[in-house]
Each structure stands twice: as structure tokens, then as C-alpha cells.
Amino acid sequence: MNRLKKGDEVIVIAGKDKGKRGKIVRLAADMRCVVEGVNMIKKHKKGNPNKGDKGGIVEQPASIHVSNVMLYNTQAGKGSRVGFKVQEDGSKTRYFKADGTTIQN
Hints:
The chain has 105 residues and is mainly β. It contains no helices and ten strands. Helices cover 0% and strands 45% of the residues.
């Protein structure tokens, strides 16, 4: 079970976008994630008139390493580390280590 999942709200703790918040759009296998509105890059896209695509400079989010983001705790209003608890029925749940509250999936 991963500490971060698609759709989690995270806060950036290192890099040029430090302090920005956003939702995880995609997780990659090499410990990287794409967060909406964070680490924006400009990509030069070639147009395709057969498909109706316009070319030009497109701004899109690039991936960021998961060590540079932290799961955002809305109750505490800041980022918090994530731990795992095993329930009585054998299932695993994530929880915030700062205050012990479970994370709603």
C-alpha cells in the first residue's frame, strides 16, 4: 500500500513550488507523481490538421518526486506524515502520524 494515492490533496515541501497545494493526478512507477498546478512546464506541440489539433506552446504539469510532497491534513491545516495501521479484520488503513486520525479513501 502506498502512502500517496491518486486524488489525494498534497502540499509541496521542497523545490520552486514550495507551499503550493493540489490534487494528485497521476502516480508513476518510479516514485514520481503529477500534481495539478504544480511544476508547470511549457511544451512546444506540433499541430495536426487532420485531427483538428492546434499547435503552439502548451502549459502542462510535469512530474515531481514523492519525497518533495506531503499529504495535506485539512483538520490541522498543514502537511503530515503518513503511517499504516492494521485493523482487526486484517485490512490496512492510512493515518496521519501527527494526530492519529485515519485518512478517508
